[in-house]
Amino acid sequence: MTDTDRQLAAKRIAMALAVAAGWAILCYFLVDVVRPDEGFVTVSFALIQPAAINAFVAVVGDPLRRRTLRYYLLVPLVTAGGMIAVSIFVLQEGAVCVAMLSPLWVMFGIAGTSIAWKLRPRDTEVDHVGDTFKAHGLLVLPLLAMVVEAQLPVPVEGYTVTREVVIDAPADAIWPMMQGMGAVAPDEGQWNVSQSLIGLPRPEGAWLQGEGLGATRHARWQRGVAFSEVVTDWQPEVRIGWRFDFAGSTGWDITDPHLRPDGPYMRIETGGYELERLPDGRHLLRLHTTYAAQTHFNGYASLWGELFLGDIQANVLEVIRQRAEGQA
Predict the structure, then answer these.
(1) Cα 176 to chain center, whole Å?
(2) Phi first, then psi: what are they for 206, rounded to 5°?
(3) CA distance 152 to 296
(4) Which pTM value belongs to this model?
(5) Is it the case that residue 266 has pLDDT exceeding 50?
(6) CA distance 314 to 262
(7) What is the CATH architecture assignment of 156-327?
(8) Domain locations along the chain
């Protein structure tokens, strides 16, 4: 490849990246207007768009049709950095949405560029005008898919996330903290991916108002997040369960609007503790949370639900374990 060829390829790649970024931002705002309730968590936007945009960049950046498969496979990794920057600094998305979107972007981007490499013309001539129009046509695929997907029902599926911890303490030392831990110091709990790395807020405290069925647990997290839980199950030193009440909750503007716990894609519904005495005198404390997911790829979303909710639960259980064993 001559210096002229390299300059031409570099120029075309830069132009392709600029067009792709502009198109992605345009699609984002278009979806926000046309389908504000479900547009972003769709196959067309989250899966087909990365495949089409990355295939477009790869094809336009290979005018001589000489680049290897390695180049086509690296394109999604390069554009992923741009996607993260656009998501955070331009679209004002949070780290949670970026974390959830990045694997899909790379995975389906590689699928798109692999197909583009397989189907590209096998000659050495510079592409013709018709080939350029074909490459630009790739960008229309997400919009066409969106029209089709809009006609399909969105499945609703329920999931339960559970974590547990063994505590070397009597039940009467654990039960009060099952009702409410009181204030939680920033250094309590444990390191985890969701809160320590991605940045989900940590709990600052939980208090019980009243006693027995119908009582209200008030929870407060970092960065102003606050919500309530209405007690629906009450067996002292055995079990306590609740229904989440987000009607008067606050602070969710600090996270991704698409991931509100009472939003159109995910509804956190119930939770509770169960305490079980072990044969050696210790106790097993189990914390569960149920939620409903409503997207076209609930299976993928549930993997992140397992991570995020599981990390939050494990952190809370560790706080209880440390305190109960300290008292014992």
Answers:
(1) 33
(2) -150, 130
(3) 9
(4) 0.79
(5) yes
(6) 22
(7) 2-Layer Sandwich (3.30)
(8) 3-149, 156-327
